[in-house]
Amino acid sequence: MVLYVRKFQVEASSETLILRQKKAGYGQVDLLLQDFSDLPSLISIPIVRISFTGLKMYVVESKGGAIACMLLALFFLGTWPAILTLLERRGRLPQHTYLDYSITNLLAAVVIALTFGQIGESKPDMPNFITQLSQDNWTCVLFAMAGGVFLSLGNLSTQYAWAFVGLSVTEVITSSITVVIGTTLNYFLDDRINKAEILFPGVGCFLIAVCLGSAVHFSNAADNEAKLSALSKLYKDVPGAGEFSGFKEAFPNKDGIKDLESESVRVEKSKAGTADFLIELENKRAIKVFGKSTFIGLGIALFAGVCFSLFSPAFNLATNDQWHTMKAGIPHLVVYTAFFYFSVSCFVVAIILNIGFLYHPILNLPRSSLSAYLNDWNGRKWALLAGLLCGFGNGLQFMGGQAAGYAAADAVQALPLVSTFWGILLFGEYRRSSKRTYVLLVSMLFMFIVAVGVLMASSGHRKT
């Protein structure tokens, strides 16, 4: 409810006064007032008018609002990978986890579309979500759906890369490739609304960060090898211990393990970062990585990075139609409508691939089935939460990008800042590592902090 104060003009005739509203655009109100012929010919009377007006669709327009969206998206997008990694380390099949994740990821897009995208009355230049579903905008819809396909392939790939090279390094590699390729494409697609002299030094910071991330991985891998070699030597030196195979059974009694939804507690627990901890983790996790080349994981991470670098430019084309594929007079896709189509294609690809992986698994994972997935409730609520976090994180990224430029919105690719925090807190990554590893780790995180600040400082303002 909005209060308007408007002046009305009174025109006097011999027997009738006609009260007319001066303000154009609100219609004309005529009130007949009898027997006021003695009034002056023109009187202005202030009148308080109460008007009920429709709500307006919520669209982020300010630079401050865009940065707030980016920061919240950064937290969400850096947290959901940690949840999925935790489930894989607890032994849950990635196919089961990703199917759960995909459901709530789509649900988040539907919620955003039916709330932010449906607020207020539909307008010719900014139709609401339901109205836009029936418009002839299929070319931009295809761009949005292509972006969803790229994101789905990237997310699916990273789920396997995490097992080989760790959460932190995977996120560093994929995020840096995304920024270098995706940010450059978005800069030119957005008609250079971002400040190039600030934006590209930020991209350079990401390049330095990826180099440091790779160095962190190889340094930490060398530390782990040294720990396992020392334990192997210890077993050989103990009479009657037999030859150390590197795969001793860490959990002879399944009831002794505390999983995500169980209250049973193990009596003894290996300290994070020790050789015993690494072996226990290998025995319990779903994807076995001992004896396999880390180049497999790095290759998967590189493929994921290329996929991630293309989904944001595709979404940019869907909402702003820089290639002029839409018919004249048809409004551009509102960010909420584009995000809905984006998430639908992401969901479809994930369902098709993961159901296929149930019956034809990769990387020597055990074979599963649709019925086994439906009956696997171990950790399901965490997978569903991860999907919601990713869905809302992507939505916030696009909302901020539509306002301040998608190149600046790529600042959310600094999610390794959050992922590394969770990796250290939840998984004991880099515990009891060498000083060299710690120095490289701190340097990598510092470069990401600088990159985030620089990219956000390059934010522009899209003309509407």
From TrEMBL:
Keywords: ATP-binding, Membrane, Nucleotide-binding, Transmembrane, Transmembrane helix, Transport. The chain crosses the membrane at residues 65-86, 98-116, 136-153, 160-186, 198-218, 295-318, 338-362, 382-400, 406-426, 438-458. It is a multi-pass membrane protein. Its main location: membrane. GO terms for cellular component: membrane. InterPro entries: UPS_plant, Ureide_permease. The keyword Lyase does not apply. The keyword 4Fe-4S does not apply. One of its GO terms (molecular function) is ATP binding. It is found in: Membrane. Belongs to the plant ureide permease (TC 2.A.7.19) family. This is Ureide permease 1-like.
